[in-house]
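Query form — protein TrbG/VirB9 family P-type conjugative transfer protein

QUESTION: What is the three-dimensional structure of this chain?
INPUT:
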Amino acid sequence: MKPLIPIVIGYGLAMAALPLHASAPASHPLQPSAPRTVAVSETETPPVVRAGLLQSTLIVLPDQEKVANVYAGDTVGWVFDAGHVASRFISVKPKIANGSTDIHIVSDHGNEYTLQLREVSADADDHYDSKVLIAPNDKAAKDRLTQMPVFVPAADLEKAKQEAIAAKAAQASELKAEQAKEETYRSQYPGSLHFDYAWDEKKGKELGLQQIWRDDKFTYLRGQFQETPALYEVKDKKPSLINFDFSNGLYTVPKQLDNGYLAIGKQKVEFHRTGGR
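ANSWER: The structure tokens for TrbG/VirB9 family P-type conjugative transfer protein are given below.
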């Protein structure tokens, strides 16, 4: 037996270099047989696949697998093609009558399938295999079908790289847009501040209140307080405690206040908004 010659390294099958001459065609037309399934075992004799001169036989791996690599003994008299995208399919076609070779397929799950290819145009039986479905016959091979692939076809790897590059570019574009939006907001923010509140400044000074202002969403009160005053909102002449954040002398109220007051014990400073909307 001639040594096996690798057809593919990694993934991607190419048509083998072929001589320009070929044997004479068969004396009778070849007929395709119905698709059949062959059981392949690493410990048993490889099954024979009947191939027809100038005809294509499709070899199909199990649903869970893709072709990772292919080796063959005769790459001169036979054409092997798995297309340009990783798949389950390999097409084989003999170019010389009465030829034979072996084909060794390695799947992305690490399974190995060996078949014997034989050209049958001179046989009394004029049928050739049009499609052969491979079924692993070893328990270990069957178990590997349920596991993750151990080989990544080059086409899939390249696709994953391109997707990663595209995702990184999209993330960078989104970040740049957010930064531009933030810069625009910062540049326009001072124009959204309104210092349109009035209060008794004498009482405010006694309590420690220094300033009150608002933007389009919040109301802010700043001061130097010996004790944190309670903050009330007044609506329809009725006061109510409201939620706020307080840090380093700054009240941040998550709404625009029209009327309210600060109070500590009997000390009280009322304020109200004088500006429009």
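ADDITIONAL NOTE: The first strand starts at residue 5 and ends at 6.
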